[in-house]
């Protein structure tokens, strides 16, 4: 379901918007918010609810690993997009699950006309690192049909 207004979105966003995502703001086009939901005792799994304002998306990026690794997105409120390099963008809505293998260049974010949240978690693995790449251009993003 699309949420154009923040007040209505907040009622559906059960995991909470959290605080402005200042630490990663340089890797986003638009404003995003981060709510730390918790972690396993050993810290191998950390859960965050990431909220994107309408039109916000993160830059292309890669979750590197020599074994295991990758990222899982569980979409919880609103509508958004996921795209792996060389593939068509996939529309996301509440209940969508995206399993991103390690070493795949991709991006994700909100549709132009909807707030969007997903729970993000990194998959445990070996030799893990994140590489931030170029922004998703306004032209690329603008071609996506809402």
TrEMBL record:
InterPro entries to which the protein is assigned, alphabetical: Cupin_2 (IPR013096), HNL-like_cupin (IPR047263), RmlC-like_jellyroll (IPR014710), RmlC_Cupin_sf (IPR011051)
Annotated ranges, domain Cupin type-2: 50-113
Top-rank taxon, per record: Bacteria
Pfam families, per database record: Cupin_2
Coiled-coil ranges per UniProt: none
Protein name (Swiss-Prot/TrEMBL): Carboxymuconolactone decarboxylase
Lineage: Bacteria, Bacillati, Bacillota, Bacilli, Lactobacillales
